[in-house]
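Key idea: predict the complex, not the pieces.
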Amino acid sequence: MTSALEIKGLAKTFGENVAVDHVDLTVPQGSFYGLVGQNGAGKTTTLSMAVGLLRPDAGTARIFGADVWSDPARAKQLVGVLPDGLALPERLTGREVLTYLGLLRGLSKDVVAERAEELLSVLELDSAEKTLVIEYSTGMRKKIGLATALLHAPRLLVLDEPFEAVDPVSAATIKMILRGFVAGGGSIVLSSHVMALVEQLCDHVGVIDKGRVAAAGPLDEVRGSATLEDRFVDLVGAGSTAARGLSWL
Amino acid sequence: MAVAVTMVRMKVAILRHSAKGQRGGTMAMGGTLGLVLAAGTIYLAFLGGDWPAAAYAVWMLGWIIGPVFSGGGDETLRPEFFSLIGLPARRMAAGLLVSAFVGVAPVISLVALAGLVVAATTPVNALVAVPAMVLQLAVFVLLSKVAVALLGIALRSRAGAVAAGVINGAVLAFLGQAWVFAVAFGQGGQIPEFVRYLPSGWGLLAVRGEYPALAAMAVLIVLLLAAWAALLSRRAGASRPSARGRRPMRAATGRGAVVAKELRTWSRDLVRNHQLTFALAYGVFFAGAPLVLGWTGMLPWAAPIFIIMAAAMTANVYGTDGTVLWLALMTPGSSDVRGRQLAWLVTVGPVAVLVAVAFTLVTGGPWALVLAAVAALLGGAAGLVPLISVYGLVPGTDPQRRTGNPLRTSEDDGALTGLAYLTLALVALTGAPAVAVAALSGWWGVLVGLVTGVLCYWGFGLLAQRRLAAQGPELLHLMRTGRRPDGRAAAGASYKLPDMPKVQRAIVITGVSFGAIPLIPQGVLAAVFISDGRLRQSWFLATYMPPGLRWPVAIGFMVLGLAMYGVSLWLVQRAKKKT
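Result:
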């Protein structure tokens, strides 16, 4: 069976800084894949290259066998993306964003209207009908972002930090939707640095450290008998700074 | 003073960092241009009379209006940085004022104000010139800060945005026309007397023996500082400007969706509201100004000027929208460029046509010329705006991350200003063929205008589309990080200089950017005028020289221009060989 996402030898260097150093990752179909790593480990850069938002220096990325760079139309049709911290059409309301994007994706007007209605109500954004996206809170931005990723019924979701700065109630809603998506046969890759969350949601995990894959595979294989957090600290070798207190407090 | 000293240090540190990258180039370029203007001002001070007063009035207006063009003025240190420290507003304003003297623009203005020493009437007054220079600069800087703060508050409501656009457009238009008049009629001594008594002239009054002007400047500075402090406390935590949206989206296709999105952004984004009213007001007032003299000939040109100005204000359309480009990248085949073009045309076109028809009706012509220009320019601008935007992209600040200053759409204000001027020139060029034909053979010009307009719209749009498809990820990366990607990815993103020391780089940029000025207008054109016997031509220096010096000056300029290109080329070649 072709993998939902197959990354081979992706590499990216910014100036002197090697951000991603020949990363290989395979996301099987139907899996819920967690990508963990410290800030600056290269998670966002890897995911951006995997979905075609950043041109890699080397390597390939295939979505259900379709190469992201040589066959972008097919690859991008199959994937829904939630990038971290990028802008949306800020002066539109949530419903308008979905309508706009659905039409861009080539969906018919009626299908767009129907799906937008359902997404807004499930994500509890329908109460903010007149609010422009620029006035949204961080949590609302994540939710509308997720809605744009789901709109065209993709088979793979690539989510960069989907739970960052999201309140617990919204987080519960998002988790429910993501679990439903996987149960329905979809595949998800999400990045996070919250280990507990990844343990709770994911069945596969990849640990990225300094631009390289430190470990990858089914969750139970990677963490062994320890918790993911302990295993992670082992792998990335965090220094002793955390144990030191502040001198003036 | 401790606050001020700390702020100055902070600003110096930030400027030192930013001078290293791409911005260093724009800073050097702007600085060179500013020094040329400053030298011109000092020259005018030697002339005496009201010339220096007029020149300083222009400097003052530049400080006030400049930020409208250059993205909100100097924002190296933002009031928001200090809002948690709990400084009293006036101390914070004082600290920010002191730090505002650090930078390229204040230094250049100070150089220009050295003209006060030149203009001093006695040796004692030459000493007076020193405090006068400092006070005068403080007046400029503070006027600029207060104007930006007021505009920021105006841009929180639609009425305010429109009003500010009209006022700014009018002021800038009259300023432009004042120069045209002065040059066209060559009325040396006939600068209106009130110019002398504007705050910009108080330093001059002081060095000419009217010492109370110094005290007046001090009082004005205290008042402005108080006003600025009050405005600053209103700015902190300001809500972002935007209007409510309610119309349901009726588009049914991808391109229709882009148009609908753009039209909503045009009407809801108060900064865009301001840009458009500014452009319209500029066109109307610029073309209407000669009515004061009873001359209606310029009136029909309001619409063409409006179109060109609107294009210049909106030329960074992709940069202003920021990283939202990712959506276009994820939907290959969506017609983002075409949709934006259509929306631009729908926004600017009807107003332009209406103004053109109404004003030409008033003057009774020349119909063919005006309609030819409007048709050609509308198509040209709608084609060039997205094209310039994807080729000369100036990375903007994402709308959701902007600060209390709504004019601040980018960190690289120098590049933004350059892009606006480039657009002015290029869009004006697209109108040239149609206007030329219309001038020679009347209505054929309108046909030519329609044809070139359609061709520009179609062709430039196609180029922009291709560029976006080919370099989309690089453009997104540029907007995300503010830096151009290294190596091969930069291919095609504007010509890249090889690695070379900072000073050499500045010399190359200056030489290539300004070499044309001495070579073409001051050299070749001036020589043509001299050989033709046409003397005292606007700003062609050689035509003002005594007979024996005319040819040497023109040839000297040509040599200077060639030398600027030659040295730049030589430096680039040498650096290339090294790497």
